[in-house]
UniProtKB/TrEMBL annotation:
This is NAD(P)-binding protein. The keyword Transit peptide does not apply. The lineage of its organism: Eukaryota, Fungi, Dikarya, Ascomycota, Pezizomycotina. InterPro entries: NAD(P)-bd_dom_sf, SDR_fam. The keyword Cytoplasm does not apply. Keywords: NADP. It holds the Pfam family adh_short_C2.
């Protein structure tokens, strides 16, 4: 028996919401761990795409950018096809396109805004998972699976949230969409299992993404945000989420399926503020 060597994640990673923020941090983590190809799927502008691509390519990993809207099924189907045309397969998928949604209370809920959150955060996860699974079902196992371990035709990680477990006032739309994400992940895990496809979710804690910066920059929002960070114990780093996603994606995690990993430094188990 010899020590393990070589890249941790040598395959091809397909990341929705990959041009910036957490999605791009995941792309960079895959690149650092030896991925041979990265696909960034997003609706951001060209400037964001180029910056996200630069961060991947400066590590030495080939990067493909694809403009696609996860709420449009044809866009996602095309994005998967373009990725496979370029790299031949998709080994790891991370579905991180998302929005914060409306802050309406339930009694004042604007149903169009409610539906937008469901379209992006729930249906978008469903559609991405659908076409990623279809591709992975066609594939042989990724190379390098250790002797005696089961093959892995693909791994999918969906972005849930601490709001997939708990909530607070004025977050009904977001909370419902993230509960749906967790449920979709569980069903997909059982459906993918016979095909050697693992499907899991991660639930990041509180990170200062572009989605929450406008909230944090108000007086009331800063007080609220500081309380969240205090309960979390410290400021979280984007790359901590990226590295966790990579680790959950590799074949060494072969028995981890249908799980929702909370990456929150104990936020969800800490009822106080320390």
């Amino acid at each position: 028996m010899s020590k393990r060597s070589g890249p941790l994640a040598p395959g091809v990673a397909f990341i929705t919401g990959g041009a910036r923020g957490l999605g791009n941090a995941i792309a960079v983590s895959f690149a650092k761990e030896g991925a041979r190809g990265i696909v960034l799927v997003d609706i951001q502008d060209e400037k964001a795409f180029q910056e996200g691509k630069r961060k991947v390519e400066e590590i030495g990993t080939e990067c493909l950018t694809i403009f696609a809207d996860v709420t449009k099924e044809a866009d996602v189907e095309r994005a998967v096809a373009e990725a496979v045309a370029k790299f031949g397969r998709i080994d790891y998928a991370a579905n991180f396109a998302g929005i914060s949604g409306t802050s309406d209370t339930i009694s004042d809920m604007n149903l169009e805004l409610w539906q937008k959150a469901q379209d992006v955060n729930a249906t978008g996860i469903l559609v991405a998972t659908k076409y990623e699974m279809r591709q992975m079902m066609k594939q042989d196992s990724i190379d390098g699976v250790e002797k005696g371990r089961i093959p892995q035709s693909g791994s999918i990680i969906n972005c849930a949230s601490v709001n997939s477990l708990q909530t607070m006032p004025s977050t009904a739309a977001y909370t419902a969409s993230k509960h749906a994400c967790a449920g979709i992940t569980k069903a997909a895990a059982l459906e993918g299992r016979p095909h050697n496809i693992r499907v899991n979710a991660v639930s990041p804690g509180f990170l200062l993404t572009d989605l929450v910066k406008p909230i944090e920059q108000t007086d009331a929002g800063k007080i609220l945000w500081d309380g969240f960070v205090q309960r979390q114990g410290r400021v979280a780093l984007f790359e901590e989420v990226g590295d966790a996603v990579v680790l959950m994606s590799i074949p060494r995690m072969s028995l981890v399926n249908g799980h929702n990993l909370f990456i929150d430094n104990g936020f969800t188990i800490n009822e106080g503020t320390t």
